[in-house]
Amino acid sequence: MPAGAREIHQEGLRLPPVRLVSEGELVADVESLLLANVRAPAERRADLRAQIAANERGGERVGDLRADHGDLGPAFDAVIDYSRKRMAGEIAALPDGTYTAADCLEGDGVTDEDVPIEVSVTVDGESMRVDFAGTAEQVDGSVNAPLAVAKSAVYYVLRVVTDPDIPPNHGCYEPVTVTAPEGSLLNPDPPAAVSGGNVETSQRVTDVVLAALAEAAPERVPAAGQGTMNNLLIGGPEFAYYETIGGGAGARPDGDGLSGVQVGMTNTLNTPVEALEAAYPLRVEAYGLRTDSGGAGRYRGGDGLIRAITTETDATVSLVTERRRRGPPGRAGGEDGAAGANYVDGEVVEAKTTREVPAGTTIRVETPGGGGFGDHVER
């Protein structure tokens, strides 16, 4: 995930769909090809074997269901149809109309110029159309996002503002149409670089679609969360460490935002200090909440985190982050959360940067707080 990548070929090994296992047997040539292109092949071999085992177990369980119940196709179809009907009903409960919002990314990793994202969301009966016309053209840096990523962010928002207990399957999303202009940030032409799009642009898509739907469902939409995954990558000839760092969630219409959590389009967890230091030539100097970084309001945004790591060997450090110039917006009169900040040995560095550093260098990441909700009142 190089911060300054200009094409997808700089972002790693690309594989078309090929079989790693065929007729129950590992395809050794494919495994060897994969492992020849990574820094820690023993770890990746273990990862692949774990995935193979999970698939085998899944196949066994589906076989058990078939043995007990026969043909499962009608049951699968019924669940898909149930999800479609439930989602159509949830959309129909929203007021018809077109709702708009706009925001931007803070540079693409090549330049620091803002990259606009615009959306219009049209609710029409039981259907919804989400159109990103007006969004920037694709950029030189890595924050381009394939349309599939934009769709995933929209689907996530849809679950936020409707009933999250609706079973997630393709029927759930049939009532929703998502479009973006070809050659744009959210529908780029090859060979655009896209690694930052998956982790950062998806977050801003989430923010703008939530902001657009805040008018339609004000009781369901919180203030903006940290709006970034705070990607930190540290690597050397024999190791590669990657983590995302939590921050503040936006305050809700009926309560404060959570502190020190992942927000929006991410499902990664905290990396325990003990595990990190045992496995890598890294030392954690600080890890804690960033006090008072959440925006004030009737309900306060959650606080961000402070994470400081010292390298014990020469290394390459990459940071791919957002919300370093402008904090996450508050809602309904709430104040914005604090913007994040990145430091290398005390020097402020750009939101997206790659540096070669000597042993003993400390990287400090201060993550954004969430926006506040509602006019401030004494509590």
List the helices and strands and how they pair.
Layout: E1 21-22, E2 25-26, H1 28-35, H2 41-69, H3 73-92, E3 97-106, E4 114-124, E5 127-131, H4 147-161, H5 170-173, E6 176-179, H6 195-213, E7 231-236, E8 239-243, H7 273-279, E9 282-290, E10 304-311, E11 315-320, E12 341-344, E13 347-349, E14 352-357, E15 362-366
Parallel strand pairs: 5-6
Antiparallel strand pairs: 1-2, 3-4, 4-5, 7-8, 7-11, 9-10, 10-15, 11-14, 12-13, 12-15
Helix pairs in contact: 4-6
Write a structural description.
With 379 residues, the protein is of the alpha+beta class. The chain folds into 2 domains: 83-221; 224-379, no CATH class. The protein is 27% helix and 23% strand. The protein has 7 helices and 15 strands. The protein has helices at residues 28-35, 41-69, 73-92, 147-161, 170-173, 195-213, 273-279, and strands spanning 21-22, 25-26, 97-106, 114-124, 127-131, 176-179, 231-236, 239-243, 282-290, 304-311, 315-320, 341-344, 347-349, 352-357, 362-366. The strands form 4 sheets. The chain has a 5-stranded antiparallel sheet, with helices on one face. A hairpin with a 7-residue loop joins strand 3 and strand 4 (114-124). Helix 4 (147-161) packs parallel to helix 6 (195-213).
Salient structural properties:
379 residues; alpha+beta; 5-stranded antiparallel β-sheet; 15 strands
Put simply, the count of helices is 7
Mean pLDDT level: 95
Broad structural category: alpha+beta
Low-confidence stretches: none
Order of helices and strands: EEHHHEEEHHEHEEHEEEEEEE
User: How many structural domains does the protein architecture include?
Assistant: 2
